[in-house]
Amino acid sequence: MNAPVWLFDLDNTLHNADAGIFLLINHAMTDYLAGRLNLPHDEASAIREDYWHRYGATLAGLQIHHPEIDIVEFLTQSHPMPQILEKLTPIERTQTLLGRLKGRKAVFSNGPSFYVQAVIENLGIRSYFNLLAGTDDFGFLYKPNRQAYLTVCQLLETKTQNCIMVDDNADNLYAAKQLGMRTAWFGRKARDLPFVDCTAHDMAALENWAAQQGWLEAV
């Protein structure tokens, strides 16, 4: 692999979503479900968490159990962008690493495309990416759904074997490895597993691994 295609997750990979953004989104999702399904707030919160744990995304549970819900409306209402952007927290050395990595780069997120685009623009890193892909760009599917990965590769006109998936979620990386991708588990929870090629607790560690593979431009 001379010049790989880098597929970056967004939340807790390119910015610190745990610094308040996930809490905002979760509250907004719960408020929407409580109003739309006419439920007490605690029951709506329990449904949101149940779907997330059972299917990997609240969106997936809604698609299965509540076809009457407008998915676009749900995603819009559950991502209050002004409040989200106020809490946007960059991850140290991200811009430096993106500027040095060889190969094309894409954002591959389970979030909606309007959220992906706004976050990347406000982080000031839009120019490093060839593609910004959110769930509506791959048929409202979501990682670790196999077809989501294949659709993103089609959009990039590349094969899965040419890609490196950088993600903070082990299930997403397992699916990527099953498709022939190389994998980098990013974040504080990362650890060595058979389907993980790189364990990177921060951008410096990911940079070191890329340098060892010959995928880093000289300074």
From TrEMBL:
Listed Pfam families: Hydrolase
Spell out the SUPFAM superfamilies in the cross-references. HAD-like
Spell out the InterPro entries in the cross-references: HAD-like_sf (IPR036412), HAD-SF_hydro_IA (IPR006439), HAD_sf (IPR023214), Pyr-5-nucltdase (IPR010237)
Report the source organism: Neisseria weixii
Lineage of producing organism: Bacteria, Pseudomonadati, Pseudomonadota, Betaproteobacteria, Neisseriales
Question: Which protein is depicted?
Answer: Pyrimidine 5'-nucleotidase
Gene3D superfamilies per the record? 1.10.150.450, HAD superfamily/HAD-like (3.40.50.1000)
